[in-house]
Write a structure and sequence with these properties.
GO terms for molecular function: transferase activity. Keywords: Carbohydrate metabolism, Fucose metabolism, Transferase. By secondary structure, this protein is of the alpha/beta class. It has two domains: 119-349, Rossmann fold, CATH 3.40.50; 355-529, Rossmann fold (3-Layer(aba) Sandwich), CATH 3.40.50. It has 16 helices and 19 strands. Helix 14 links the parallel strand 17 and strand 18. The model is unreliable at 1-35, 39-43, 48-99 and 413-418 (pLDDT under 50).
């Protein structure tokens, strides 16, 4: 934990400055709530195809060298973003997340060993076979094969749902290759950790360790803002959120190691490997290798750069395969029936089990009349990508409510009469069930873009309407950094409540919506079928 150093100036703050700081801190907490699980702009759901997006309703032992590259990444630096389906090479300008502080202002890149045969980009290691770019890997003959245990590791990045997708894919890869999976920590909050090429992403992950205050003491860093950044994120083990993952892996014969860090030093000590035992799968692009479980598959690559057959992956002799990224909805195919069945079992077990989250969500569900007595909605618009598409996404959502679910808008008098949440939830004669809206918008009731939803439906409720029920979350702190877990758990509560309506309507392309729909399938639809 990084601790602030007190100085005499802090005692001379006037009332006006204190008030400004208090207001600023309140706004900070509000923004934090808005962006922890509700994904940032690199969280768009990419199905792996190049077609235009369509309206979606989700139904179902060399020393590691370091070199200061003297490169300053300012908040306006153009970086590669995770591409949308219609624009696979689009870039955007990074927006500052807090005042003028940028966490990678003084960036030192740790240069990991590079095998010249495979380079640092997927294009360096691709060859064509029957017109299809194939991903080149070391063969069994290139290195004496070890009979000892072999491993898979990968670098996590982005927000909660992208990390979840990466984890699911990594578990599939562990099954396909019979390797032990090294699972990284789950990063929650505003880490400013989008996908980047291997060395950059690896280096940034090493900085996210909350050990000492040397980073915040570097020249040019505002210490207060730097410390604020370090208090905006935390790490957990995945089984603290998905309690069933450990037992599932044991039942399925998947061997796992929980990593405290993705540091090579830590990994080498833990599994007893040296540099020559490691093969890095460097892609240099967000969508590099697409893994095929069926060698006869004719599935197109889509946005991915090269094909990688599981048989080739299984034949790599190195003890550790270290992936740059395993993110992507279609990154790892499961076209063989046994693999698809395994994945279905996996996703049924990867559900939120954190007791405080479940208890809080259930209390709110009860206030809404019980499971299946309301309609769950997710509207995403708190970042630039979804903000641009917000009007059209809202029209799609309202159209679905009108036509697909035969939900009519309410007369103006009815809307005004039941605008008060307590009143509308007590009424028995509403023209439609209550709408519970999960959103990353800061003030959806008063924002112009979202106003049509509240004007057209008589009983629209938000998580903020149940503030007193969230107090139980105050009791939970992370034992590692002593931070309150409340702001990191609140979006999970929001998701669980939205997913337990009679139906769920999400935002096209949102991984939050996709996961909420999955939870809906597990919590509501399966209960209905029993």
């Amino acid at each position: 934990m990084v601790h602030s150093r007190k100085n005499t100036k802090s005692f001379l703050l006037g009332k006006k400055k204190s008030l400004l700081l208090a207001v600023g801190f309140s706004l900070f907490l509000l923004a934090l709530h808005s962006g922890i699980l509700y994904e940032s702009s690199d969280e768009t759901l990419n199905t792996g195809t190049t077609s235009n997006p369509v309206p979606i309703h989700y139904s179902t032992q060399n020393t590691i060298k370091s070199k200061d590259i003297n490169k300053t990444l300012s908040p306006q630096t153009t970086i590669e973003a995770i591409p949308s389906e219609s624009s696979p090479t689009k870039t955007h300008h990074v927006q500052p997340f807090t005042s003028n502080y940028w966490p990678w202002k003084h960036e030192t890149i740790i240069e990991l060993p590079v095998d010249p045969k495979y380079g640092v980009h997927v294009s360096d290691r691709s060859y064509f076979h029957n017109g299809v770019p194939m991903y080149k890997l070391p063969s069994a003959s290139s290195l004496p094969s070890s009979s000892s245990e072999k491993y898979i590791a990968y670098l996590p990045h982005s927000q909660f749902n992208n990390q979840r997708i990466s984890l699911e894919n990594a578990i599939l890869l562990a099954r396909y290759t019979n390797r032990t999976l090294i699972i990284p920590p789950l990063f929650l909050g505003r880490t400013q950790l989008p996908w980047k090429p291997f060395d950059v992403l690896y280096s940034r992950l090493q900085r996210l360790n909350k050990t000492g205050d040397e980073l915040c003491s570097l020249p040019g860093n505002d210490e207060r803002e730097c410390l604020e950044f370090y208090n905006r994120w935390t790490t957990l083990r995945w089984d603290e959120i998905f309690g069933g993952i450990d037992l599932f892996c044991k039942e399925e014969g998947i061997r796992i190691i929980w990593a405290n860090s993705m540091s090579l030093d830590w990994i080498k000590r833990k599994i007893h490997v040296k540099d020559s035992d490691i093969h890095y799968l460097r892609d240099g692009t967000m969508y590099g290798a697409k893994v095929y479980d069926d060698p006869k598959s004719q599935t197109m690559l889509g946005v991915y750069a090269a094909r990688l057959d599981v048989d080739k992956l299984k034949s790599v002799p190195h003890k550790l395969l270290y992936f740059e990224s395993t993110y992507g909805i279609e990154r790892v195919l499961r076209e063989k029936p046994a693999n698809n069945a395994f994945f279905n079992r996996l996703i049924r077990r990867l559900t939120i089990t954190h007791q405080a989250v479940i208890t809080t969500a259930n209390k709110i569900v009860s206030r809404l009349g019980g499971q299946g007595k309301y309609i769950g909605v997710h509207i995403r618009g708190g970042d630039s990508f979804f903000n641009r598409n917000f009007p059209s996404n809202l029209r799609i959502l309202m159209s679905q409510l009108h036509t697909v679910y035969n939900l009519t808008t309410s007369p103006k008098k009815t809307v005004l009469k039941y605008r008060d949440t307590k009143k509308c939830l007590r009424q028995k004669n509403l023209p439609h069930p209550p709408l519970y809206v999960a959103t990353d918008l800061v003030d959806p009731r008063h924002e112009k873009a979202s106003r049509p939803l509240f004007r057209n439906f008589s009983c629209v409720v938000l998580l903020d309407d149940f503030g007193p029920l969230l107090k139980k979350l105050d009791n939970y702190k992370n034992k590692r950094d002593k931070l309150s877990l409340k702001p990191f758990l609140i979006p999970m509560v929001d998701m669980l409540v939205a997913s337990q309506g009679s139906i769920f309507v999400g935002t096209p392309g949102s991984t939050f919506s996709a996961f909420a729909e999955r939870m809906h399938e597990t919590l509501v639809k399966q209960d209905d079928e029993k």
